[in-house]
Design brief:
Chain A is an alpha/beta fold. Chain A is built from 4 helices and 6 strands. Chain B contains 18 helices and 12 strands. The chains are: A alpha/beta (165), B alpha/beta (387). At the A-B interface, loops of A face β2 and α2 of B.
Amino acid sequence: MRVAYVINSEQYPYHKQILSDFESVVSGKIYDVAEWDYRIVNEIVNCKYSVVIFFDLAGHQFRTTSDTLTFNKLTCRVANILFRRVEEYMHVECRQNLSSFMYISRRDNLEQVKRRCVEVPNIFYFPEFRYKADSEEEHAFNMESVKVWWSDYIKEAMINEAADI
Amino acid sequence: MKLLIFESATGTYTYRDIAQYFAKHGIEYRTVSYAFTNGRSDEFFEYQFAKILKEDHYDAVFGIDYYPPVAKCCHDNSIRYISWSYDNPIDAIDVEESLVYPEVMLFVFDRIQAQGYIKKGFDNVYYLPLAVNCDRLERIRLTKREEQLYSTDVAFVGKMYDSMIDSFLAHMDDYCRGYIESVVKAQSKVYGYYFIDEMLTDELIARVNNYFKVLNPDTEFSLRRENLSYAMGAQSTKIERLLLLKLVSAHYGLKYYSYEKCDLLTNAQYMGTCNYYDQMPKVFKASKINLSITLKILQSGIPLRAMDILGSGGFLLSSFQPEIAEYFENGTDVVMYDSIEDAYEKVKFYLEHEDRRLKIAGNGHQKVKEYFSYENQFEKLFKIAKI
């Protein structure tokens, strides 16, 4: 199964640190918004990944000529994981493809996101996660959370781990 | 009334205006999108879409463009699927297989296309020209900088249509290749009548597919008539577009907006792409002449691009199209050409006669505003759909 991560290490320096927590469960190619230009958007869209995981809506500023999210072109499953409060994101209300799943790590934010983001399907809670982890214990805790999340996600998103979609 | 709008995940040009019309007229709606991988059945989509349908009560699903998997889901969930397509031909496979569902109503903007379906027994297919939101377009103003950026003698916004024809031709015998190339060339010079379908006889399609088997006995690929027709239509449109843009740009200022720069257009100014909602109307407003070179396979209908130009108040110079001739007066509301030489002469004439050009642009704008508003077209659609 081909997986990609899209991060923005410039805007969110912790993205690189938490990638290891995710990669211990599911490894994938990493695209860092801080290091790319628009052509990489097309590369991701055309690369036929099975799953693309976005941290904190990295790259969601890109639009098509009809003003929809460029990443809505993805025909694979998408997971958007939001580690911060919803108010901090500019593009959180943009309509997402039905194959997209949004995970909110702030439990107190979940209902608010569901009410506010009426054009975002599949909004779920992300297990407790320390995105600014700085000890081995915290990383171990995070890995467990990622394991739980991934196991739920592949069921909910009907992902066949043994085969490409 | 509450509708569930289905829009392709890649976005559609008419969505915003349709949603705005619904909001303005108190029609509740929710919108969902999906990018189909193969256009056929999709278990994941069916599950997700059914889940959305169960979350609320909807009077119908309203589709911007037509998708057979959505039709299947609506059939499975016993909800009406009313689709208004702005693509021609419909960019999906198994369209006819899904039109048998009683829940489906398909509105197409090309009369010949609608008649084609009706002749085949699909009485749930209707003809409805596209609409334009003049109120929105009228509100768009250009800054001084934008005027400088977009102003030109002639503008063209559109694709160059890189079709599959070369790949198909590479696997054909000499006879088929020569025949198809000749038909493409001939069609590029003919306006108002699409004859490619008639030229693709059963014998020819069989010969093409037999030769594929000779070249590769294990191949399971079989070229369908509609795919070959589309590729040929796209190629003849490409020929027309290139020749006309090359000729015009040799004598006048020409800016073109497309996904890719065309190396053959050495005198034309490539401007990249333009955003449909904000930039494209500005292009049309700032350019003296706006070309609409219709895709040949669009047999009679008024393309969205022509509506966009007229709605923006731009001067429209269009290839001859039967329904433009039916609804608009040539030389009064719009100007049409019937050969590349004719187009060039008309560019020359209307660049030299600004007063007539501005008068025609104004007339064309008034006409689309009066007859092709979303209010007009949705009134007809809802009357037919009885909702």
